[in-house]
Structures are given as C-alpha cells and as structure tokens.
TrEMBL record:
Domain of life according to the entry: Bacteria
Residue intervals of the AraC effector-binding domain: 1-128
Name of protein: AraC effector-binding domain-containing protein
UniProt source species: Marinilactibacillus psychrotolerans
Classification via Gene3D superfamilies: Regulatory factor, effector binding domain
Alphabetical list of Pfam families matching this protein: GyrI-like (PF06445)
C-alpha cells in the first residue's frame, strides 16, 4: 500500500519533505472485528494547494475533529503497547470519551524496518 501511494505521489509531484508525513489509518477495531475483516488504509499529508488527479483507490480525503495525541519513540514490537496505553491508560486518566472515527498513526520519522530500530510516531485517538 505504501509503495503504491509513494509512486502515485511522486508521479504527481505531491511530496514536499517539509510537509509530507505518512499515516496508517485503522478503519476497524481489532477487539471487535475478526482478523480477516480488519481494514487498514494509508494516507499522506501533502501541501494544501496541491492538485491531485485521483486514480483507482487513491483519492483526496481529510481528517477532522478532536484527537488525543500520544508521542512515542517506538520499535516495531512496541506499537501494540503504545496503542494499549492510549486506550486503556491515557483515555481513562484524562476522562475523555472516544468518538466513532478512525484512529491513526502519524510517522514523524520513517517507521522501523526491523525490531532493533526505533522511530518517532504519534498515535491519534478520536475523542469527543
């Protein structure tokens, strides 16, 4: 999915190193959705004035609303614990209420390619 998105963005000159960040959007809740039915999307932040010629499954979309944001430095094996912290600890300690929208990860730096490397990742939880 990421390769297709980057290829598309490169062809259309949408990548700006100062602005462009990549996201993974989790369209389904893994605690209530069977694994074979889980849907995940990838997205990219691009300049506001960019002109996009949509193609296939790649389209323009926007994310809005209020989010709780956790900032993490994670290895590949630590992502599950970070999500658990955001939903089980942070959400309840802050007395926030989750809203019905897709949570996502924003990769501040490139995601880790192996279990040793770490990356900076922000986890966004939609809240009311």
């Amino acid at each position: 999915m990421f390769n297709e998105l980057f290829e598309f963005a490169t062809e259309q000159n949408l990548i700006d190193p100062e602005i462009t960040k990549v996201l993974t959007i989790y369209d389904d809740n893994p605690y209530i959705t069977r694994e074979e039915n889980l849907r995940t999307s990838v997205a990219m932040i691009i300049p506001n004035d960019a002109e996009v010629k949509e193609r296939g499954e790649i389209c323009v979309s926007s994310i809005s609303g209020k989010f709780g944001v956790g900032h993490f430095e994670l290895s590949a094996k630590e992502y599950g614990n970070a999500w658990q912290y955001m939903y089980q600890d942070w959400l309840f300690k802050k007395a926030e209420k989750a809203r019905d929208a897709a949570p996502f990860e924003l990769y501040v730096t490139e995601p880790p390619k192996n279990f040793k490397d770490k990356s900076l990742t922000d986890i966004y939880i939609p809240i009311k």
